[in-house]
Amino acid sequence: MSPSPLTPPRAIEVTYLQMRSADELRLKPCPDASTLHIIEAQEPLPELNRFLYTAVGGDWYWVDRLPWTWAQWQAAIGGPNHRTFVCYSRGTPAGYYELHKNDDHSVEISYFGLMGQFQGRGIGGWLLSQCLADGWAWGANRIWVHTCALDHPAALHNYQARGLKPYDSETERRNLAAEPPGPWPGAQRLPR
Known about the structure:
192 residues, alpha+beta, Aminopeptidase, seven-stranded mixed sheet, 22% helix, 31% strand, globular
């Protein structure tokens, strides 16, 4: 299957959000504590992070890291300033988040999301609550994230519902394929 042709450049609005205190966190309870668990991947494994990146982001134009080599993935996720957490539903990976601590002790939510079959079950708000709690427990002085129209349509609302507040925005121009790449050719796609 050949990649989709690129469309003319599109204007993409990017929103930056932040939380300056753990007191601003609005927790959402776990929808099913008997089946959902979060485990930190304590050994950097580029294959795992690439799998999560494509499985979650394939339907949302997460394409920036697709051409990366194994060494580039290792450099991005290795070291003490990066952490990866995987959410499991009955032993099956359901979603994940990556946190990156910057030199100024702010923590960026680098990646966050659920795989398609786990969306719409009330898991996202709880998972983001845990993500933010882990960021604060890691000693953050501020937690921030950016999102755009290329992410899941509920992403911005979920961030704001958990207490993150917009602080900046910008417009990027991007050439995009007519359709996002999906997790791999022939994979079941989310309805658009």
